Amino acid sequence: MPRYIAGWKSMGFDGRFTLVLIGWIAALLATLVALAFAIATPDLAAARIVAVALVIGAGYGVARHVDRTNRTVGRFVEALHFGDFATRFDRRGGVGFAALGQSLDEAMRRLQAQRDRAADEQRFLETLVDDMPVALLTIDHRGAVQLANKAARRLFAGHGGTRPADFAVYGETFAARLAEDGERSAELLLLRSSTGPQRAIVRSASLERLGLTSRAVTVEPVQGTLDAIEMATQTDLVRVLTHEILNSLTPVTSLASSAAAVLDDDPPDLDLARTAVGTLARRAEGLEHFIRSYRTVANVPDVRLKQFQAEPFLRDLDRLFAADWPDLQLDITVTPDLVIDADPDLLAQAVINLLRNAAQATREAGRGSQITLTVAGDNGVAKRLTLADSGNGIPEPQRRDIFLPFYTTRAQGTGVGLNLVRQIVIAHGWTIDVAEAPGGGAEFRLYLG
């Protein structure tokens, strides 16, 4: 018997429930035997009545013992069904499930702790979403638009309704984007607001929730950032322009004064005046060339994309380079059958400018003659173009300025070439950076998508 009780305890039961149940069943059997004896024996009418009462009482005891346990377990399961993790197992009244109740109570405490942690995490995420500086809108499967955080409620406070069409007050294109299904990559849109028109980056993504598809749309106003960038660009441009124009005007002014002074002499020194005026004309021509170069920089390249083979494209550039710089070595590395998705004419112009800079830097350094041009990619499509020289390199503080228009460190440079390279790169949607080459020179990297 102790072995069976130990088995019951291992299942979460103690022996009390079973022993009490056996006792009631034994009592019921005994009263049934007594009732049968009273019925079989004559002249025991009173004993029969007592026996019947005892049978009913024993049966009631068995039913009550089992029913109380069932009701206790039922209430506990119902509490679980409704998520009431504060409920504890009722072990009063002789239920007899002390070990089971203890295990269930411990499980309930763990579930309650997990729910509390999940609630804390949910509150944190809700606060994070609500306080994030980017406006967030959600669109459910019925097309209803909800403002999901404070930034969205501040930005879109001038309308009523939840339909995408209700947001047309901020821009028809924006309302059309809200009405579209599916995902959309970052897009720069012009929005109308109470503070005036402003540009914003709009992104959308599809989400699955409870088996239904919804969308999340983020709106990040960038007008202030763009204005700051524009002002910084204008400041840099004015700084470079004034520097270059003053550098050109200073000798022009000096030569003009010298020529006027010579002509005022009696008699005038015509040879000296002629020399001064000739020099003045050449300097004026140089200033005109500079201004024409500025007009070239101001033109945005018109990109016409097409796919073409990388290897023959680079071999043509190799022949052009060899014709202009026969004393320098250009090593080209390219995977066979690699294709480039670009405007071939604009890309050739950009690479030629980079090759020219690399050749000049390599020749000026006088410590090597090797220039490497590498094109690498994935799945047969070019993704990166790298050009490294063996010159003196570009100091870290100057790497940001070299792409500015008219910025140059060479006496004969115009500062236009690298700016045009950057314009071509940006027009393609690519990026460009410059670092130190393995051999100590400069390494330009074009990331082609």
From TrEMBL:
Query: Do you know which InterPro entries this protein is assigned to?
Result: BphY/WalK/GraS-like (IPR050351), HATPase_C_sf (IPR036890), HATPase_dom (IPR003594), His_kinase_dom (IPR005467), PAS-like_dom_sf (IPR035965), Sig_transdc_His_kin-like_C (IPR004358)
- The Enzyme Commission number assigned here is 2.7.13.3
Q: What are the residue boundaries of the Histidine kinase domain, all occurrences included? A: 240-449
Going by the UniProt record, its keywords in alphabetical order are: ATP-binding, Coiled coil, Kinase, Membrane, Nucleotide-binding, Transferase, Transmembrane, Transmembrane helix, Two-component regulatory system
One Pfam family recorded for the sequence = HATPase_c
Name of the protein in its database record: histidine kinase
What PROSITE patterns does this protein map onto?
Answer: HIS_KIN
Please list the coiled coil stretches.
Answer: 101-128
Q: What class of enzyme is it?
A: transferase
Organism in which the protein naturally occurs = Sphingomonas panacisoli
Q: Which catalysed reactions does the entry list for this protein? A: ATP + protein L-histidine = ADP + protein N-phospho-L-histidine
| Bilayer-spanning residue ranges | 21-39, 45-63
In its UniProt record, a GO molecular function of this protein is: ATP binding
Q: Which GO terms describe its biological process?
A: osmosensory signaling via phosphorelay pathway
